[in-house]
Amino acid sequence: MKRLLLMAAIMAATNAAAQESKPTPWFSNIKLSGYGLVEYQYSGQKDKEANTFDLRLVRVSLDGRIAGDFYWKAQMQINGNTATKGSSPRLVDLFAEWQKYGFFKVKAGQFKLPFTFENPMHPIDQGFMSYSQNVSCLSGFSDRSGQHSSNGRDIGVQLQGDFLKNKSGRNLLHYQVGVFNGQGINTKDVDQQKTIAGGIWVMPVEGMRIGVFGLEGSYAREWSYTDDSNMKHTEKKSLPQHRYAISADYKTKSDWTFRTEYIHSTGEGFKTSDNEKNADLKLNGYGSKADGLYALAIAPIKKEKAHLKARYNMYRRDGSWNTSKTMYEIGADYKFSKNIGVTAEYVFVNDRTLSDHNYNMADVQLQFRF
After folding, report:
1. Strand spans (E) along 270-339
2. 289 — phi, psi (to 5°)?
3. For the CA atoms of the chain, what is the radius of gyration?
4. What is the mean predicted confidence (pLDDT) over 11-25?
5. Of 241, 211, 74, nearest to 146 (Cα)?
6. Of 32, 52, 202, 223, which one has the greatest count of Cβ atoms within 10 A?
7. Which residues constitute the domain of residue 161?
8. Beta bridge partners of 179
9. CATH number for the domain including 301?
10. pLDDT single digits (tens) 87-110
11. pLDDT in tens, 113-159
């Protein structure tokens, strides 16, 4: 708690000093912001019943501009979570982007992978209690490869832009492509083989996107151990990863939202996560294929104030129905103001990897920004 308060005080002081001084063309518009998610969740999974409150996320960020053409951002997660209490605070984002031309922008640092529509979305704006299973397992969150939890991010360089304007001046095409370490956040490359990820989409009508994405690379791990004769050894293993996604979303002026994405992956994964100390090189035994699909709809009760929502959320860890986990979600949200709201969901889960396939979940979150 002392560390959290100290960090908040330092960032607040930095922001105050920036506001008191006159902006210059070289370093200006510094802004302190953040958000938090306070969660209650119930799970009725047999022998793993849970009923708990949790601080799901607390993040603080600074961003601004340098010399007018460069946008920069630094973001930290300052709370622990139920899986990795010891790994926070930790750096989540740190990047700068040259934005002089809308059709050609260059970003460098640590940031969201350009893979799927949902991955780059804000945890609150994506609309449900968590990111969909296929995005979580195949886009750098709790990744199938065994990579440590990286919140959909990696370290690298990316090009992106919009072009081909119509008569009204709206761009019809967007592209983005980047080269990354392939190891997740705050980690150097291990096998010296970079990962390439990117996508392209069309915007035929206002509010609609139809796109395809690809990811080609590897995830590697180095394991150190001592044998029976007290000799130390280090081994390295690299697992190729080949993924693609087909995506579509549409948000209407009347505040309806529709979104769906299918993701397919080829490439094996390690049995243990890199979050564990000295994780070994054993494979998870799921084989080389996995895929998943989600489809959602969010309907306004009152525009930009209250909504009803539903999501079909399916993931197959080895590409077969025998290992599918499907979540049928319904819920609602309400915004008390622009910066604070509450969301509630009921989930029926069918998990065919369990002896007792079906169970229920409930989730309520207080979501706030500052």
Report:
1. 289-302, 306-316, 324-337
2. -120, 145
3. 21
4. 50
5. 241
6. 32
7. 2-369
8. 157, 196
9. 2.40.160.10
10. 668 999 999 999 999 999 999 999
11. 999 999 999 999 999 999 999 999 999 999 999 999 999 999 999 99
- HEC sequence for the chain: CHHHHHHHHHHHHHHHHHHHCCCECCEEEEEEEEEEEEEEEEECCCCCCEEEEEEEEEEEEEEEEECCCEEEEEEEECCCCCCCHHHCCEEEEEEEEEEEECCEEEEEEEEECCCCCCCCCCCCCCCCCCCCHHHHHHCCCCCCCCCCCCCCEEEEEEEEEEEEECCCCCEEEEEEEEEECCCCCCCCCCCCCCEEEEEEEECCCCCEEEEEEEEEEEEEEEEEEECCCCCEEEEEEEEEEEEEEEEEEEECCCCCEEEEEEEEEECCCECCCCCCCCCCCCECCCCCEEEEEEEEEEEEEECCCEEEEEEEEEEECCCCHHHEEEEEEEEEEEEEECCEEEEEEEEEEEECCCCCCEEEEEEEEEEEEC
pLDDT value of position 25: 59
Q: pLDDT at position 17, please?
A: 47
Which residue, 132, 244, 148, is CA-closest to 196? 244
Task: Tell me which residue has tokens 């209407």.
Answer: 252
